[in-house]
Please model this.
Amino acid sequence: MNHQAFDILEFPSLRALLQRNAQTKSARALIDKIEPVNDFGQLLQGLNRLGEMIYLRSRGTRVSFDGVLDTSASI
Model:
């Protein structure tokens, strides 16, 4: 991977934006681990998931994780 390209595209700023909008502590921890995708199949799967969420939002569906407990310490 070309890390210089990701710096130019402000990948760290994008990650910070995602973290500011995360609803839970565990989501912020997962966002910390996000790296650019190097596999086309994995990228396509992620885009399909994103497309599904965009479709649900367009229909008025609201997904909320407020009140979800962080279980990572107990595992």
Q: What stands out?
A: The helical segments are 3-8, 11-20, 25-32, 40-58. Residues 3-58 form one domain. The chain has one domain: 3-58. The first helix runs from residue 3 to 8.
